[in-house]
Amino acid sequence: MDKNQQQKENFIHENSKNKDLESYRADHGEELLTTNQGVRVSHTDDSLKAGNRGPTLMEDFHFREKLTHFDHERIPERVVHARGFGVHGYFQVYEPITEYTKAKFLQDPSVKTPVFVRFSTVVGSRGSADTVRDVRGFATKFYTEEGNYDLVANNIPVFFIQDAIKFPDVVHAIKPEPHNEIPQASAAHDTFWDFVVNTPETAHMIMWLLSDRAIPRSFRMMEGFGVNTFRFVNQQGKARFVKFHWKPLLGVHSLVWDEAQKLAGKDPDYHRRDLWEAINMGEYPEYELGVQMIEEEEEFNFNFDILDPTKIWPEEIVPVKRIGKMTLDGNVDNFFAETEQVAFHPGHVVPGIDFSNDPLLQGRLFSYLDTQLIRLGGPNFHEIAINRPIAPIHNNQRDGYHRMTIDCGSVSYSPNSLQANAPMPASEAENGYVHYQEKVEGQKVRQRNESFNDHFSQATLFWNSMSSTEKQHIVEAFHFEVGSVMDKEIKQRVVDMFNNVDGQLAVQIAAGIGAMPPKAPMIPTVTNQSPAVSQENTIKDARSRKVAILLENGFNHTEISQVMESLAGAGVQTEIISKNLGMLTSVEGQQLEVGKNYVTTGSIKYDGLYIPGGQQSVSTLTMQGEALHFINETFKHAKTIGATSEGVDLLMASAIQGVAMAGADTQDQLMSEMGVVTIRNASDINTFTQEFINAIAQHRHWIRQNKKQMIPA
């Protein structure tokens, strides 16, 4: 065959391959929605239920196909919550709560129940940054003597959707756009906001997502919420509806947006590093487990549906009862074997904990297990060490991918007589799991109860509950997120949608995104507040905070040693920052080692800043642009700044010079309120350190936001 003939046949062959591929291309336009089997779908927003408030029916082939396909879309990375970090610990109940539940691990205060907790972001891939604006996962596996119990929680108490059948839709919308895989770990793009404006039930969740809650300071300073409604069942068979809460003993604190963005570049592992280092230093994170409970007969006593996962049970209406404490005290030995292979499932419950007809929970009970089958190679993922219960396992399940147990004997079925029917079912008296006998009846329908139709009142409640600073941050988040949307119609629809939350909020959103304000700004009919949702009302504690100390040769060792000793006594960590790594020498001749230089760190990695005296040290720092930038950025991010003796002069050389550092008492008081603590006389060092520590505990000093002229650009 000559060369030309060969080229001709190759051309024909390649062309025929391309023609074959055309049959696989799908450019979805105005076609009708179908299943993967080609069956036209009449409704895809609600799963099939027994009555409009009843449980989801497994015969819903569209729901199962949609969720199954979604669960298996990514290999081997998790579809959501891909970037996570796990730690070990233990849980102890404060006192027996036999009145509410027969769950054994909630009865004996002397028992330490082992736990494994995986914190995570939701949207980003494994390689994304820790500090992106996102929901955070807070999943806890309790290794109880009755079996494993998984409390699969988030750091936000509500969710985007009411029915699990919409879960693939919201995740597809918020993930990188499919045509160009952009943007990573961000909701700031067209497809997500297109989904939002077409799905008004997202309104409440969007308010939380654009608040400071979505950029936590640390996993150690982050609440956890079970989101869904479960049941407690006691020994007498009495049930109560329950929601779960994790309350951090360090309080709930956040980053600022500029800080979070810079950390994503400077230290994308910021949150996992923070947790790893805290545990290694013995600063064990602690969280109290709280429960909200509603009696079954009170189910319909509220102006919201208690099964609606887009709603909170406001704590001032349904108080949180704190029943125990979890302490995280052990880092993993192998990230893959433990953190990556751990498998959580809200269907992993123990006697005394049961489910409700929450339609999001009903879908999760199918989806989580289904996901593990593809991620971890089949049905035996429970035999992986991190997933193995401490309770003994006895059943007739055999074989399958990656089976590790060597089952002996010929019997693998039930009932049997060859082995006296062993292993035999446990009676209720033997603590066999018995599902709560809820009466269920209704026609098979694809619809929601009318009680799920209120999408805006709790979004307004959340907005009403925010401090002025938190409101400002939410508006700025709207400006960034929706300002990144290209489609002008979607931007306008965002304004119109959130006019239903608060008219003035909508006006402020419009001003920053190039959209028209609403023609008739809505005056909310909801005027009450829920103080628990505002971080303004959280615990203020200086423990485990981290303070940077700017230093050069010729520092005052007496001052710095006193301050460092006092800070350490309050549980505050310190790190010396200088232009170069190595040893620095004080005026008295003592030496201190530099922990970081300006290249390897930044103000964004610390909770506060201290500048000690020493004329030579301060004079050198004054000539360093990096040092002045460190101070200016710390001030911009509303963090505590302290300076003693000549260190005050360095503040005067920075952009903070617009505020008098010394002089009249009123000026000193102003600086103190703004979180800038200074003394000229080293004899007052003890007074300084106490005031400095108190200021650090405040986390931020938002009064600076009202004094824009003082904040460096």
What Rg do the Cα atoms give? 29 Å
Alpha-beta classification: alpha+beta
Q: How many separate domains? A: 3
Provide the CATH top-level class of the largest domain: Mainly Beta
CATH fold name of the largest domain? Catalase HpII,  Chain A, domain 1
Global morphology: globular
The CATH homologous superfamily of the largest domain: Catalase core domain
Question: How many individual β-strands?
Answer: 20
Helix share of residues? 25-40%
Q: What's the CATH architecture of the largest domain?
A: Beta Barrel
* Tally of helical runs: 19
Major β-sheet annotation: 10 strands, antiparallel
> How much is the average pLDDT?
91
**Percent strand:** 15-25%
- Point out poorly predicted stretches: 11-21, 660-666
Cα separation of the termini: 73 Å
